Amino acid sequence: MAIFDIKLPNSILKTLRLPQNNPRRQQLKVLKKLIRKARFTEFGQKYGFDEILMSKHVGKKYQELVPVYNYNKIYNEWWHRTLEGKPDVCWPGKIKFYALSSGTSEAASKYIPITNDLLKGNKVVMIKQLLSLRTYTDIPVKSIGKGWLMLGGSTQLQKGTGYYAGDLSGITAKKQPFWFQPFYKPGKKIAKEKDWNKKLNEIVEKAPEWDIGFIVGVPAWIQMCMEMIIEKYKLESIHDMWPNLAFFVHGGVSFEPYKKGFEKLLGKPISYIETYLASEGFLAYQDRQHGKGMRLVTNEHIFFEFVPFNDKNFDANGDLVQNPEALMIHEVEEGKDYALLISTSAGTWRYLIGDTVRFVDKERCEIVITGRTKHFLSLVGEHLSVENMNKAVKLAGEELNVCIPEFTVAGIPYGNFFAHHWYVACNDRVNAEQLRLKIDEKLKELNDDYAVERGSALKEVFLDVLSEEKFMDFMTAKGKVGGQHKFPRVLKGKILEDWQKFLKGELKVQN
């Protein structure tokens, strides 16, 4: 009998804390656990964690006494001292690992604290997700025991004064349990490689030696890796090399723009499993084959709050106002967009992670990621979300029968009014004017505010078709190659200036 056919006893379910209770009760239990552990830290002493624990209404008292933080605020007030080796600042003990953020919207890397408690919680969630595969129908169980190709950051971490820093994927791979070693590819030696192109070439060389059942990573880089393997070995599909490949675990960006091009590389259908693993922690995962979204991890190591993503709580730049409205999990509604605040077992307190989510099934705590607080366009009130953009690109691509793996949009002045400028990656033959009209048409259908403003202050839409290689070259020029790095869907400020310089040939690719 396969492990996934076994019905787990209640004792094991309790040990793994598999979600089966009231989410509100689970979340308050998690909050109490976090506060109790951090009560003697400097942060806990300043913000009255003992008083919160003694309160009848722990959640509300926590919101009353502890302020909301973004990265710059919590780093400047608290986290910078942990980098100097000071213990017991926001979490007990010294912080020995930091995840370097992979975003392209900030000039400098962010140092996100990683603790053993956080990594332990992440591992438990990974096991839960693995166990959830027993609910998948027609699951090729033999594929689970095959190799897991995880295309992440280098495990060769940067050494600081008393700490190490790097991609979370690299830290996780470096500290993975011994029992996983036989399954893990590309193996320790290749995983240490920092040069992304060299790493990909080494993976391509080793590919015939492996029997891969799972691939894990950001869609763009996984697709590139499979294309290189198919080209080198003159294959019809990746399944000619790895016949047991059955699962693709992805996250970080919407998979829809990549799906059409991705499936051209396959010889048979595979299952797609979405995860929400950020540098700050493992927040959610798809736990059923045809789920509407991902289930939030409500009973492990993260306490969630939800800020309605509207003009009352955010300014025009996507920055949080002081004292925003913050809801707990039992107070949310389906169909509304919320920005996430998280408190974690790494000393991250009421922290604005920057993503926006929407509940699609409140009872099951299932969410979809709808965008970023900074990655939206609302020059004149069009309120265009990344979700709108993804859908419009997908629909336009389907109607014109073309694959659009990457795109980005900028808002620009246009006379006395404004315009949107789209940059679209497409290696198929496509009429740029037709594509421009299609995307504009779909956005009008999807977003009423956009439709209104297109007849008013949003006077024009421009669109340039570029090669996918152009987008990758820009990421290389910015030093954002491989691992968890994603191309931003909306360009603003410094990143927009750099993109415009790059297209003019003024920003060169790093060698």
UniProtKB/TrEMBL annotation:
Domain called GH3 middle: residue spans: 297-361
Domain GH3 C-terminal stretches: 388-492
InterPro entries, alphabetized: GH3 (IPR004993), GH3_C (IPR055378), GH3_M (IPR055377)
Alphabetical list of Pfam families matching this protein: GH3, GH3_C, GH3_M
Highest rank taxon of the organism: Bacteria
PANTHER family: GH3 DOMAIN-CONTAINING PROTEIN (PTHR31901:SF9)
Protein name (Swiss-Prot/TrEMBL): GH3 auxin-responsive promoter family protein
Organism: Danxiaibacter flavus
